[in-house]
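Hey, can you fold this one?
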Amino acid sequence: MKRAHIIVTGLVHGVGYRSYTKNYAKQLELKGFVRNVRDNKIEIVVEGYEKGINTFLQILRKGSWGAKVEDIEIDWENPTNEFQDFEIKS
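Sure. Predicted structure:
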């Protein structure tokens, strides 16, 4: 198991990016959350198998329809197994 703390920068607010993220996280059986943060950024914390997280990162780079991803920062952390599902936080 792996854990990634991800910050996505760009045109990612108001374009369905959080729902897009949640849908793919669930398909890949990842757990964690996504939320908007200031300055046109999205924060994602995700736990799961390395292969699934790597696929997820490729999907995040593509972005939802209307999104324009400029940058993705990834910090790998030790998993905590604190999540039961993947959710959108406000």
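The CA atoms of residues 9 and 25 lie 18 Å apart. Let me know if you want another pass with a different chain boundary.
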